[in-house]
Write a structure and sequence with these properties.
- The protein is an alpha+beta fold.
- It folds into three domains: 26-109 and 233-265, D-Maltodextrin-Binding Protein, domain 2 (3-Layer(aba) Sandwich); 112-224, D-Maltodextrin-Binding Protein, domain 2 (3-Layer(aba) Sandwich); 280-418, Oxidoreductase, molybdopterin-binding domain (Sulfite Oxidase, Chain A, domain 2), CATH 3.90.420.
- It is built from 17 helices and 20 strands.
- It has helices spanning 3-26, 38-52, 63-71, 76-79, 90-98, 125-130, 145-156, 164-171, 190-196, 207-216, 245-253, 257-265, 294-299, 329-335, 342-345, 364-368, 387-391, and strands at residues 28-34, 55-61, 83-85, 105-110, 112-116, 136-139, 173-176, 202-206, 221-224, 233-239, 280-284, 290-292, 303-313, 316-328, 349-354, 359-363, 376-382, 385-386, 395-398, 412-418.
- Strands 2-1-3-10-4 form a five-stranded mixed beta sheet, with helices on both faces. Strands 7-6-8-5-9 form a five-stranded mixed beta sheet, with helices on both faces.
- A hairpin with a 2-residue loop joins strand 13 and strand 14.
- Helix 3 (63-71) packs parallel to helix 5 (90-98).
- The longest helix has 24 residues, at 3-26.
- It starts with a helix and ends with a strand.
- Residues 5-25 have low confidence and may be disordered.
């Protein structure tokens, strides 16, 4: 073979090898994401792949069930996932607390709507939902955040109609998003298919889901939920601690204008949380009613608190330390100057209310006359992250409760100092 031909073939081989190596270095990125993102994220991913050459392997499903897979070290497919996008911030936060995942951030916002069959007379949403003849469907709480948001929406109904929360939660059929939920046939929108089965008249879900269902079945109606009942859904994403540069670059791309524009076409809104209107109210039997903005709260002297938590990681029980920054609940109550009646004050109850209607309480003695009060904290930062910026509202934890769940308040909006009736 002529030397010149040999050199040419060698150069071609090296060029092809370098191109293959570059493509291999780019690699592929495995992503798990909430089912409500399927249409929009698939389009975003296709655009990104065309520009970058990075392969993207997308898996969609109920966020809670996906998170359980990611926690299962025996699930090989899930262990290859580098990026998780949930329809809430709780599931990413649980992965972060379990170790091996980076701090989550909010990537998108969504809202709730009511999807209705064509024979439903649209009008007042709450009246329709409470009507005994209206069959109501929702997703499965805990497994699917859409169900959690519907549950929270029902909680807010109590402020508009006494007894509404219990009625709605008892009548709602949990039809999607659970481990045993029936699956829609291939090619059908799951919510349009559920509505076609004739088991419910309306379905409370994300507005983006309702919009996709209406594309599948144009006769379906979409009803807006009034602001007094509305619940905002924040979509959180988290990367593995050892995520490749390709995975990190794709996560960053999701926040860019071109990707956000695609999400907006499907009905999502930007990740920015508007905290300007947030006000934490301290009221009731106080001399100085407070209405505290995020800036007011951050301007206070914040204290640091640590909580040890045991989580399951790679099948092992592992201790994790969480760091909170915030103000003691009793300091906020004292700042509002409770009623000076010393006899009555010892019988006072401090009632906490969240934006979703959830309530819990502490006695005066717990807060002011026991060590427990040293750990009842209105949380503004968790592991360095601004809670109000992420969720729109502060949260509250009672760090010394043996079972902390019942008195863990997310989206804290009001503190009432309640004196007993004389």
């Amino acid at each position: 073979m002529k030397p010149r031909l040999v050199l040419w073939m060698t150069a071609c081989f090296m060029a092809c090898s370098l191109a293959s190596q570059a493509q291999a270095q780019q690699g592929s990125v495995a992503v798990m994401a909430a089912g409500s993102l399927k249409d929009a994220l698939t389009e975003v991913a296709a655009q990104y792949q065309a520009k970058s050459g990075v392969g993207l392997n997308l898996t969609f499903g109920p966020s809670g069930l996906l998170r359980q897979r990611l926690e299962n070290s025996a699930d090989a497919a899930a262990q290859s996932v580098s990026l998780f996008i949930s329809a809430d911030t709780d599931h990413p936060q649980k992965l972060v607390q379990g170790g091996g995942w980076q701090a989550h951030r909010v990537v998108l916002q969504n809202r709730m709507c009511v999807l209705a069959n064509e024979n439903v007379n649209t009008g007042d949403v709450l009246n329709l939902l409470l009507d005994p003849s209206t069959r109501v469907g929702i997703s499965t709480p805990k497994a699917d955040p859409a169900g959690d948001y519907a549950w929270a929406l029902f909680g807010k109904a109590e402020a508009l109609r006494v007894g509404a929360t219990q009625v709605l939660r008892e009548k709602a059929q949990q039809l999607t998003g659970g481990p045993q939920s029936a699956q829609a046939p291939s090619g059908r929108n799951p919510y349009a298919w559920v509505m076609s089965q004739g088991n419910v008249d309306v379905f409370v879900t994300y507005c983006t889901n309702a919009k996709s269902a209406q594309k599948d079945t144009p006769a379906l109606k979409i009803m807006a939920i009034p602001q007094a009942l509305q619940v905002s859904a924040s979509y959180g994403m988290t990367l593995r601690a050892n995520a490749s540069s390709a995975a990190q670059q794709f996560a960053q791309a999701l926040m860019q204008a071109d990707a956000q524009a695609i999400f907006a076409r499907y009905g999502f809104s930007s990740a920015e949380v508007n905290t300007a209107e947030m006000r934490l109210e301290v009221q009731g039997s106080v001399q100085d009613r407070l209405s505290l903005s995020r800036q007011d709260l951050l301007a206070m002297t914040l204290k640091k608190f640590e909580e040890q938590r045991t989580v399951t990681q790679e099948g092992q029980q592992v201790a994790r330390k969480l760091i909170f920054e915030g103000v003691l609940l009793r300091d906020l109550v004292e700042r509002a100057q409770p009623s000076p009646d010393r006899r009555q004050i010892r019988k006072t109850v401090v009632l906490l209310t969240a934006t979703d209607g959830y309530q819990t309480s502490f006695s005066w003695g717990e807060l002011f006359n026991s060590p427990l009060g040293d750990g009842v904290v209105v949380i503004l930062r968790q592991d360095g992250q601004d809670v109000v910026q992420t969720d729109g509202w502060p949260s509250l934890r009672s760090l010394q409760d043996l079972r902390s769940g019942p008195r863990h308040v997310r989206w804290l909006k009001r503190i009432d100092v309640v004196l007993p009736q004389s």
